[in-house]
């Protein structure tokens, strides 16, 4: 099933079919495998190979694979992206800064989705969303070029209705709401979930699909699923960390199981 066909078929005559959740939404999971490449680069080795990791991720039932091609190529490199494009059976998402070099490369490789993120050289990982209210216009040309190449464009933003509306005005297909603050504070501060909910509610009128990502794990993802905030989930670190003990395919399968149960 395409990860963008969210509705369950209504015809399955099973126990599920007579439950009131028959038409519940199936949420898609794209697994970020940057951390596999980080491990490879720690020894400047040829393994572990993110291309092999992607196959395991697909075996575990993921709907897609995400990589962040950084300008400094600190983990994922051009070869990884090109091979992933050729070998993935599910969707490829590339996170990147909206630089001319990156846009040119993507219009050649043509991943299914590009997620534009702000990139700071000194950061360990992406920390905040792009401020579209202040600086969105600077992205217009990149968004147009990517869309003309048939690539779905997602913008990684902090979760406010104003940022979601600005993404709609720019012609984005998807917004990825930054769950960093939520993931750090969710257990103590219920307002952080409300913040995500309010931002997601603005997506309908803005005409964009909602994804979420950053810092999500096997526990904090549950309230987000139950609130039905997003159609797509971009999760990396928690899954790869669990994979150290359980293996990658089972770690992905467990996340998919949680998504299924709580959808
Ligand atoms: N979404 C974006 C835009 C990211 O930059 C990252 C981290 O690479 C993720 C999702 C995944 O975050 P995590 O690895 O914390 O699950």
How would you describe what is shown here?
Strand 3, helix 5 and strand 4 form a beta-alpha-beta unit. The protein has 13 helices and eight strands. It has 263 residues and is of the alpha/beta class. The chain has one domain: Alpha-Beta Barrel (TIM Barrel), CATH 3.20.20. It is 44% helix and 15% strand. The chain is globular, with a radius of gyration of 18 Å. It starts with 14 loop residues before the first helix and ends with a helix. The protein has an eight-stranded parallel beta barrel with strand order 1-2-3-4-5-6-7-8, surrounded by seven helices. Helix 8 runs parallel beside helix 10. The site of pyridoxine-5'-phosphate has 19 residues, from strand 8 and helix 12.
Strand content: 15-25%
Low-confidence stretches: 1-23
The strand order across the widest sheet is: 1-2-3-4-5-6-7-8
- Main sheet properties: 8 strands, parallel, barrel
Ligand names:
pyridoxine-5'-phosphate
Structural class category: alpha/beta
CATH superfamily: Aldolase class I
Tell me the helix content.
40-55%
- H/E element string? HEHHEHEHEHHEHEHHEHEHH
- Text of the CATH class: Alpha Beta
CATH topology: TIM Barrel
Compute the average pLDDT: 91
CATH architecture: Alpha-Beta Barrel
Oligomer: single chain
Radius of gyration: 18 Å
- The domain count comes to 1
What is the overall number of helices? 13
């Amino acid at each position: 099933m395409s990860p963008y066909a969210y509705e369950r078929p209504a015809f399955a005559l099973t126990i599920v079919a007579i439950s009131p959740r028959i038409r519940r939404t199936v949420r898609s999971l794209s697994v970020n495998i940057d951390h596999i490449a980080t491990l490879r680069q720690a020894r400047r080795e040829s393994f572990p190979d993110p291309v092999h990791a992607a196959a395991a991720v697909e075996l575990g039932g993921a709907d897609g694979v995400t990589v962040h091609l950084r300008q400094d190529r600190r983990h994922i490199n051009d070869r990884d992206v090109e091979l992933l494009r050729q070998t993935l059976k599910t969707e490829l998402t590339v996170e990147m800064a909206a630089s001319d070099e990156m846009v040119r490369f993507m219009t050649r490789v043509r991943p299914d989705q590009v997620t534009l993120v702000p990139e700071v050289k000194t950061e360990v990982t992406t920390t905040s969303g792009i401020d579209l209210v202040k600086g969105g216009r600077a992205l217009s040309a990149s968004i147009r070029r990517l869309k003309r190449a048939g690539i779905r464009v997602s913008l990684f933003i902090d979760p406010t209705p104003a940022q979601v509306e600005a993404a709609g005005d720019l012609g984005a297909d998807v917004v990825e709401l930054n769950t960093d603050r939520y993931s750090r504070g969710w257990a103590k501060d219920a307002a952080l979930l409300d913040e995500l909910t309010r931002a997601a509610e603005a997506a309908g009128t803005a005409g964009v699909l909602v994804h979420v990502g950053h810092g999500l794990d096997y526990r904090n993802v549950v309230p987000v699923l139950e609130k039905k905030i997003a159609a797509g989930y971009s999760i990396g670190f928690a899954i790869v960390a669990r994979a150290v003990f359980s293996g990658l395919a089972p770690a992905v399968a467990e996340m998919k199981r949680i998504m299924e149960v709580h959808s």
